[in-house]
TrEMBL record, chain A:
GO terms for cellular component: plasma membrane. The chain crosses the membrane at residues 21-37, 57-77, 84-105, 131-157, 178-200, 238-261, 286-308, 347-368, 380-404, 410-431, 466-487, 519-541. This is Iron ABC transporter permease. Belongs to the binding-protein-dependent transport system permease family. The lineage of its organism: Bacteria, Bacillati, Bacillota, Bacilli, Bacillales. Keywords: Cell inner membrane, Cell membrane, Membrane, Transmembrane, Transmembrane helix, Transport. InterPro entries: MetI-like, MetI-like_sf. It comes from Salicibibacter kimchii. Residues 50-258, 344-540 form the ABC transmembrane type-1 domain.
From TrEMBL, chain B:
Gene3D superfamilies: Periplasmic binding protein-like II. One of its GO terms (biological process) is thiamine transport. It comes from the Bacteria. The keyword Signal applies. PROSITE patterns: PROKAR_LIPOPROTEIN (PS51257). The keyword Signal applies. Residues 1-22 form the signal peptide. This is Extracellular solute-binding protein. Residues 30-56 have a biased composition (Acidic residues). Keywords: Signal. GO terms for molecular function: thiamine binding; thiamine pyrophosphate binding. One of its GO terms (cellular component) is outer membrane-bounded periplasmic space. Residues 24-69 are annotated as: Disordered.
Length: 552, 364
């Protein structure tokens, strides 16, 4: 594709032309939807599928929100020990590829799995939980996405002024009322942001409903769209588009709910994050610590162990004994396979660039959105959220339509390079940063800025000495999400990559498809362990730095 | 109607893309391109000369865009072998699932022009669809003489490249008596023990459903019986293999070579070719009608079908399409296999109805 000329400069006619095209598209789009809806919606199966989708998404989001809020509260308020380490473990479910999580739970609960043999020892007859069910889907989705809620909520909780809670408490309110009537309303901006992102992530997830739902004959919107796209019948694309619009409407309802909740929430008056514990667990501390760590270790170690085991056995289906154990799969994926190394480099480049770009643009947009909210940037936010809500396959197809020949006969040369992946990632993940930054801004009262302004601080100074330190934790948790999500992205990449731009997710996908689950597990293990080592390294550095500060 | 989908979606994304500032992104793409060029230089050092004296001596050269659903290992071996004979052709690969490749190709076609020169996908029915839309280039390779004619398109639009039979796989620890017939899957012993890929998600499985439903003694009743017997469906062949090798299910309907590979590595799994015959997909190869580099495309197709090319994929574990060549151990070759087949064009025309029928039987 190197031989295609890439004209440069003079953007204005192009922009004008694009705007013309947008209008035309929109008009055609609307006409087409009106014609197609009646057909798709008149089928009983469509309604069944929408019902399945709603049950799955609401159930899993409820689970994510409860777990996320609980852990955020524990880390922000209680005197539980080793909080930073705890935080790393809370993030693990999010970085393990979802197919590994699904596979490991089905193995655990399967009839040859450890759970079944444990139940066998009991005198009465109990079957292990069937993971291939709506319950299984809700469980795995909820576990995979609760870290999203946690990340958005923990900073908000820390910023809630403790005197408010004290005041309520000294007025005689019991703790659960303080929590419900003071803490929760103040935490709503973060909880609603995290809940929305988890909601959307549950809605457009394909891997988990495909793995657990197909055997149970449960179809949801994302798998139905896939069925339509690959059916490539005469009206496949238009039916897929209709379903995508339904999905977009569901996502929109979620966004509306989030806006409504934020409007209802109370504005904060303080700005400083408060890291000191507000709640002592007292004599329950050991018990609670044991329970919390037990839970976290269980939900992280189950998938990690299953991944390790598969990566170490000679062949799938053999028991892990010293005879069957081998490191050869690791050697193969790391040294004999020339794709793995370049995939790691590509993914780091893509995730890094995407994060940097989103951090700047997303934060700037979030600033505008929270300081000067109006209809225009509200609609813009919906447009930014949409690509995250659409199934990856649909977004990837849209990217092809958009970038192959933006003007008929002119190929700008981005399609077929790593550039198209970068654009796709930025388009898809920008909303994560926007929500992260917007949550951070909602914590900083405008009066802080005004105060700085009144005292004559220049814009730069205002940002550097006042806003940045206050905002940084919130901005960085958004950036962390963008980075981790982009690093292991799969569906968009599987349609848009080209020679030389393979990504981590793609290498895993290719091994899986070819039936080499031992290789894909070995490679996934390498990736997950690398991320973990990175996070633990950061944690250790933090500890050393803290000690130094304390000593000096 | 087809066109509207992309347009409406693209509309919203255009807004975004312009909001994101396309400049920055274009720069990145530029950088990436440089990087890529460097890699290419390493891959085939004498590439640059090739671009200049293109085909001056009748030798093919230039770049060739190859879209395939083969596993990396297979595609890499083919390209390496091809480059030994034609070092001046640089093959750019896009590899993904058949479903992903075909979606990308059709989307490209809608957006302007398909970017592939050569296509290699799972089954012939997919190629029938492309043929129907006039997307293929007619080419009669000199290698066709060695290939049984039922695996070659009569209009010369595409040719099978290997024999992939869907067989009956079983877990050797769970099954004592080796099954012999497809009917064993609907027997009482196999209740809740059978797993297969879903025709709703896998093109190859849709092909099997098309064939079985049109074969005497099977029909849709076969699928009804499978459903009665609590047969499980999963997304693809890889999932079937995992479930049977891992002992979650005793029997699976799955492509033969993945079973042979797993068996060779030591998994507790084996395969049989049922006595009624087996559906065969052939991973056909075809050239796109608007291929930019037709010469190189034809040379590439010749190589894939040639004895050397077939030898390479046999080493990876596939059954060659050439009649005279021996298949890998445990697998049946082109001569030996008892193929169940049906009219390809008809199956293409009725694929929607077929999956619909399947959905009626297996749906909730």
């Amino acid at each position: 594709m190197a031989d295609i000329e890439r004209p440069k400069g003079d953007k204005s006619p192009l922009l004008f032309w694009k705007n013309q095209r947008i209008t035309t598209y929109l008009i055609f789009g609307i006409i087409f939807f009106i014609f197609n809806y009646s057909e798709v919606l008149s089928e009983g199966r469509t309604w069944q599928m929408i019902e399945n989708t709603m049950v799955m998404v609401i159930g899993s989001t409820a689970l994510s929100v409860s777990l996320g809020l609980f852990f955020a509260w524990l880390v922000a308020y209680s005197d539980i020990r080793k909080k930073s380490l705890l935080q790393i473990f809370i993030l693990i479910p999010f970085i393990i590829p979802s197919y590994i999580v699904s596979l490991s739970w089905t193995e655990l609960m399967g009839r040859t799995g450890p759970f079944a043999s444990m139940l066998d020892m009991l005198p009465f007859d109990i079957e292990p939980l069937n993971m291939y069910s709506m319950g299984g889907m809700i469980f795995v989705l909820g576990l995979s996405h609760f870290p999203l809620v946690y990340l958005f909520t923990v900073g908000v909780l820390r910023s809630i002024p403790r005197d408010l809670e004290w005041a309520a408490k000294s007025g005689g309110a019991p703790s659960h009322r303080v929590f419900r009537e003071v803490t929760l309303p103040l935490a709503l901006p973060g909880l609603a942001s995290g809940g929305l992102i988890a909601f959307i992530a549950n809605l457009d997830n394909f891997g988990i409903p495909a793995f657990l739902g197909i055997p149970a004959n449960i179809t949801v919107l994302s798998t139905a769209i896939y069925q339509e796209v690959i059916g490539f019948g005469s009206d496949a694309f238009s039916r897929a588009a209709t379903l995508s619009v339904i999905l977009a409407i569901v996502a929109l309802m979620g966004t509306m709910l989030q806006w409504w909740l934020v409007k209802k929430s109370n504005q904060l008056e303080t700005t400083q994050q408060d890291h000191a514990p507000r709640f002592t667990l007292g004599r329950w501390r050991i018990a609670i610590e044991t329970a919390v760590w037990g839970f976290l270790l269980f939900i992280t170690i189950v998938p990690v162990l299953s991944m390790l085991r598969t990566s170490l056995i000679q062949a799938y289906g053999l028991p892990l004994t010293s005879e069957n154990a081998t490191f050869s799969h690791y050697l193969f994926v790391l040294f004999e396979n020339d794709r793995a190394q370049s995939a790691i480099m590509n993914s780091i480049f893509l995730a890094g660039t995407t994060t940097l770009f989103c951090l700047i643009v997303g934060t700037a947009f979030a600033y505008l959105r929270s300081r000067r909210p109006n209809a225009l940037n509200g609609i813009l936010e919906l447009f930014i959220a949409l690509p995250y809500a659409l199934p990856g396959m649909v977004l990837a197809l849209a990217m092809i339509f958009m970038w192959l020949e933006p003007i008929p006969g002119w190929n700008p040369g981005i399609y077929g390079t790593i550039g198209i992946l970068l654009i796709a990632y930025i388009t898809r993940f920008l909303i994560l940063q926007v929500r992260g930054s917007a949550t951070a801004f909602s914590q900083v009262d405008r009066s802080m800025e005004e105060a700085a302004h009144v005292f004559g601080a220049k814009t730069m100074t205002k940002w550097k000495s006042i806003l940045v330190p206050l905002l940084l934790p919130g901005l960085l948790s958004g950036a962390l999400l963008v980075f981790l999500t982009a690093l292991t992205e799969l569906t968009v990449s599987s349609l848009l990559w080209s020679s030389g731009s393979e990504t981590i997710g793609l290498v895993i996908f290719n091994f899986e498809q070819a039936g080499y689950s031992t290789y894909s597990s070995a490679f996934s293990t390498v990736i997950v362990l690398t991320i973990l080592v990175g996070m633990i390294g950061y944690y250790v550095l933090q500890q050393i730095w803290k000690k130094r500060v304390n000593n000096s | 109607m087809k066109k509207f989908f992309p347009l409406s979606l693209a509309a919203s994304l255009t807004v975004l893309a312009s909001a994101c500032g396309a400049d920055n992104v274009q720069e990145q793409a530029g950088e990436a391109e440089t990087e890529e060029t460097e890699n290419e230089a390493e891959d085939s050092a004498d590439d640059e000369e090739a671009e200049e004296d293109a085909s001056a001596d009748g030798e093919v050269s230039g770049t060739l865009s190859f879209y395939t659903s083969q596993p990396d290992e297979d595609a890499d071996a083919l390209i390496e072998g091809f480059n030994e004979i034609h070092p001046d052709v640089e093959v750019e690969v896009f590899r993904s699932g058949t479903e992903e490749v075909i979606s990308r190709l059709l989307a490209e076609e809608e957006a302007g022009s398909a970017q592939a020169d050569v296509l290699l996908l799972a089954d012939a029915v997919t190629f029938e669809g492309l043929k129907e839309d006039d997307l293929l280039h007619e080419y009669e390779s000199p290698e066709l003489d060695a290939i049984p004619e039922q695996f070659v398109d009569e209009d010369g639009m595409y040719t099978g490249t290997k024999i992939m039979s869907t067989v009956l796989a079983y877990n050797t620890e769970l099954v004592e008596d080796e099954p012999v017939s497809w009917a064993d899957l609907t027997s009482d012993e196999a209740e809740n023990e059978v797993i297969m890929p879903s025709p709703l998600y896998s093109g190859a499985a849709a092909y099997n459903a098309g064939v079985f439903s049109r074969t005497d003694g099977f029909g849709w009743e076969f699928y009804e019986d499978l459903h009665e017997n609590d047969t499980t469906t999963v997304q693809g062949n890889g999932d079937v293999l995992q479930n049977v090798a891992g002992g979650e299910k005793a029997y699976g309907m799955v492509v033969d070579f993945v079973v042979a590979n797993a068996k060779e590595e030591g998994s507790p799994i084996d395969l049989v070719y049922p006595e009624e015959g087996v559906p065969v997909i052939t991973e056909p190869v075809g050239i796109m009608d608007d291929a930019e580099n037709v010469e190189a495309a034809e040379a590439f197709v010749d190589f894939i079908l040639s004895e050397e090319g077939q030898e390479l994929s046999t080493e990876v574990g596939y059954v060659p399409i050439r009649a005279e060549m021996d298949p890998p151990e445990d697998l049946q070759g082109a001569e030996e296999v008892d193929e169940l087949s049906a009219d390809l064009n008809e199956m293409m025309q009725t694929r929607d109805e077929d999956t619909e029928e399947f959905n009626m039987i297996f749906g909730e």
